[in-house]
Amino acid sequence: MRESRDAYALFIDILGFADLVEIDSSIDGFVETMDDPHPTEIGRLVSHRFDAFHSVLQYQMGQSSTRHVRTSLIFSDSAFIVTSVETDVFTFAVQLMRRLLRAGVPVRIGVGYGSFVAMRFFTDSFKHSDKHGCQFLGQSIVRSVRAESCGLPGCRIFLHPTTPLPSHHVKYQALPVPHIGMKCAVQHELNYAHLNGEGMDPLIDPEFFSTELYDIDLTGNLGDLKNIAPTDKHYQYDETLSAINRMRAVYGRDPLPYDARSRWNVAWPRFRQSKP
User: Fold this and answer.
1) Bigger pLDDT: 266 or 263?
2) What distance in Å separates the CA atoms of residue 74 and residue 57, rounded to the nearest whole number?
3) Which residue has the higher pLDDT, 160 or 267?
4) Residue 3 falls in which region: left (phi positive, over 0), alpha (psi -120 to 50) or beta
5) What digits encode the pLDDT tens for the residues 14-69?
6) What tens digit of pLDDT does each residue of 196-237 get?
7) Long-range CB contacts (< 8 A, 24+ apart) of 245-254?
8) Is the torsion defined by CA of 233, 254, 190, 220 positive or negative?
9) What are the residues facing 110 on neighbouring strands?
10) Is the CB of residue 80 less than 8 Å from the CB of residue 109?
């Protein structure tokens, strides 16, 4: 048996993907939408979220620092990312959540800490069958899944109760959740609202406008996701917006509505014209 190590694990899961696949007529129908010029609305949505999820994950893995040893285990609508470095796991989780929401993919992320061991990965092809194996285990894996499925709604990053909170040198903060998870006693979530001046656009002078622009884009996409979701799933996006506004309040910023982007689009040309 390979030696285990202590590590952080992220479990990322697309919200509502299984329900969409159930609605779609068949897996063949889903595959055909890749090249079908006239796919069904559901088929188009499934195809987009599947492609965007994997594209963003691949991009994120490529953008992240190669100094850290990381194990990625990616499935159809979920993935595990395992790393031993505190700064890596929290930075990765925050950036991934932002990028996926901007890409129109609603996800929830759980963070766990504990043992991890990758046992065996293999693919065997026989005359009449194929065999694929992805064997891994550990406390970090179990705890990340339990944090993600704690029972609290929304596109949020939940920390398992045994996960060490970000230390002082990590710029992303862990905030207390208003309600403790029903299935797992999650008490903290990671703040993924944009820090002042983070992602600064060189064409914009005040840091306020840069920060607001990124958060407004985030909440605007969230509103788009709510508009195409079934009515009985709207609470997922309402809870996400409430969480984002709690995150913004930590930085002293006012709450944003879903339609902040449309208001910004009206004010933005006037702001640009006022600049020298």
Assistant:
1) 263
2) 9
3) 160
4) beta
5) 999 988 888 865 555 555 555 555 567 888 899 899 999 999 999 998 876 556 66
6) 655 444 444 444 456 778 888 889 999 999 999 999 999 999
7) 246/175, 246/178, 247/175, 247/191, 247/192, 247/193, 248/193, 248/215, 250/173, 250/175, 250/191, 250/193, 251/193, 251/195, 251/196, 251/211, 253/193, 253/211, 253/212, 253/215
8) positive
9) 11, 158
10) no
SS (H, E, C) the chain: CCCCEEEEEEEEEECCHHHHHHHCCCHHHHHHCCCCCCCCHHHHHHHHHHHHHHHHHHHHHHHCCCCCCEEEEECCCEEEEEECCHHHHHHHHHHHHHHHHHCCCCEEEEEEEEEEEEEEEEEEECCCCEEEEEEEECHHHHHHHHHHCCCCCCCCEEECCCCCCCCCCCCCCEEECCCCCCCCCCCEEECCCCCCCCCCCCCCCCHHHHHHHHHHHHHHHHHHHHHHCCHHHHHHHHHHHHHHHHHHHHCCCCCCCCCHHHHHHHHHHHHHHHCC
Predicted pLDDT at 163: 96
Q: How confident is the model at residue 97 (pLDDT cuts 50, 70, 90)?
A: very high
- The class that CATH gives domain 1-192 is alpha beta
Closest CA to 241 of 155, 168, 167, 180: 155
Question: Rounded distance, CA 46 to CA 2, Å?
Answer: 38
Using 50, 70 and 90 to split pLDDT, how confident is the model at 182? confident
Q: By percentage, how much of the chain surpasses pLDDT 70? A: 77
The pLDDT of 171-194, averaged and rounded, is 88
CATH 3.30.70.1230 residue ranges for the chain: 1-192
